[in-house]
Amino acid sequence: MATSVPKSSNWRLVYEWSNYRLSAACVNTAKDVLDVVDPFEVQAGWFELDFATFHVQRGRGAPNAQHKKIDNTLPMLNLRECWQQREEYVKLYRLGPGNKGIDLLFLEHRAPFIAHELRRQGMLVRGDA
Question: Looking at beta carbons, which pairs linking 100-107 to residues 24 or more positions away fall under 8 Å?
Fold first, then answer.
């Protein structure tokens, strides 16, 4: 869990549930970055995944008004630990459940953005739809 507004900016929100966001540990390590996208505001198309690098990039559907916040968010999303985690999910999905990997249902549950991007880019395997 990470706070949306850090206690250094407004200590009164430290214990308010409305100020908390569930985040991956690799993203939570980037402290005091204030002008980023709130995960509750993100819409489809704001971010895309480059499967060659496993880096997240600004999506073609991102509204102009959000470009600055999206661009400020990308360095956190593209920390080494984060892209390596995405790479591992894709590797396990491609292996499949019979080969010590995972299936699409598990991927959709644990990493819905990756599953969405595999589907959008036509990269699903084993007849998944």
Answer: 103/128, 104/128
